[in-house]
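Progress note, sequence design subtask.
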């Protein structure tokens, strides 16, 4: 006896629903703007299209990755994994078969920036110009007589890279490195831009800052593996002295990292992650609208989801067939 087509489709849907665990998906939200944006989009896409509860949980890189492999686990997904920066967590997980990466979501570029008027007014276009006669005295933002360089937020791997670069380029002979949260630095940056004051800082794309034409990324020597060694603070107390970075960083593949157990507990979500992707140019625009125009991340994500339903439904179709 042949099963009617409609009934067969219903049975397939029931089987797929039963295969999905009732446990919530815990998305690790890192502390930078693009990580927050991807976390929100993922949460919305999953909740709108799958019968799965989602929890978005802020955390540091170490907390998220460690939580993905812990027993019991506290995280399932790292929403914005910058590779190879985060290889010290992802690599062991891949070798053990406990962590997997989605396809490349977008390309990430980072380095050091100054406002473009600093290039025009002071002739500073290269990293070494920061400590030249025309540069070393103009970047003092706290009035202590020494220049300042924002290197990122505590816990970022890129902050560790920047500290090593500051040593490798001998910037610390004239500049003090400043560690603070991104939102706090952004307020200082916007005040400096409004007053045309010189500032030097870590920068990365995609980011709302590059929606302006006001910033210039400084030239660095091309990436050279012989001049690019980063020792983790978790591996050595003398990590900074043992590190050596005096060349540009490589272009990053920014991906979604997830615990491989999702392939068994939530197979459709694991497949969805392999389809998911937001273009870097869109990321810059969305972060600009949320952070600079003060529309708010949630409203920006809501508009993006509404405008990209055809794309999202294609991701969902593929995931539901898995």
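Output:
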């Amino acid at each position: 006896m042949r099963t009617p087509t409609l009934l067969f489709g219903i049975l397939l849907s029931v089987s797929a629903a039963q295969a999905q665990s009732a446990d919530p998906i815990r998305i690790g939200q890192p502390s930078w703007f693009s990580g927050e944006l991807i976390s929100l989009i993922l949460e919305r896409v999953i909740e709108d299209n799958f019968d799965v509860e989602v929890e978005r949980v802020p955390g540091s890189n170490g907390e998220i990755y460690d939580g993905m492999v812990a027993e019991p686990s506290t995280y399932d997904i790292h929403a914005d994994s910058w590779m190879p920066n985060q290889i010290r967590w992802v690599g062991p997980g891949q070798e053990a078969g406990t962590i997997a990466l989605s396809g490349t979501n977008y390309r990430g570029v980072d380095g050091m920036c100054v406002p473009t008027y600093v290039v025009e007014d002071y002739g500073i276009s290269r990293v070494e110009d920061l400590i030249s006669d025309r540069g070393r005295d103009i970047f003092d933002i706290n009035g202590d007589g020494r220049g300042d360089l924002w290197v990122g937020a505590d816990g970022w791997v890129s902050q560790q890279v920047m500290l090593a670069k500051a040593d490798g380029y001998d910037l610390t002979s004239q500049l003090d490195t400043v560690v603070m949260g991104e939102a706090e630095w952004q307020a200082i940056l916007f005040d400096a831009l409004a007053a045309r004051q010189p500032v030097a800082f870590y920068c990365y794309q995609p980011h709302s800052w590059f929606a302006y034409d006001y910033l210039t990324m400084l030239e660095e020597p091309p990436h050279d593996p012989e001049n690019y060694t980063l020792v983790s603070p978790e591996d050595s107390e003398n990590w900074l002295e043992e590190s050596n970075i005096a060349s540009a960083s490589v272009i990053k593949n920014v991906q979604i990292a997830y615990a491989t157990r999702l392939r068994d507990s939530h197979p459709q979500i694991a497949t969805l992650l392999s389809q998911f992707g937001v273009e870097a140019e869109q990321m810059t625009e969305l972060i600009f609208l949320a952070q600079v125009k003060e529309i708010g991340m949630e409203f920006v994500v809501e508009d993006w989801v509404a405008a990209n339903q055809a794309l999202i439904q294609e991701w969902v179709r593929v995931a539901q067939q898995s």
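The CA atoms of residues 92 and 99 lie 8 Å apart. Work on this subtask will continue into the next period as scheduled.
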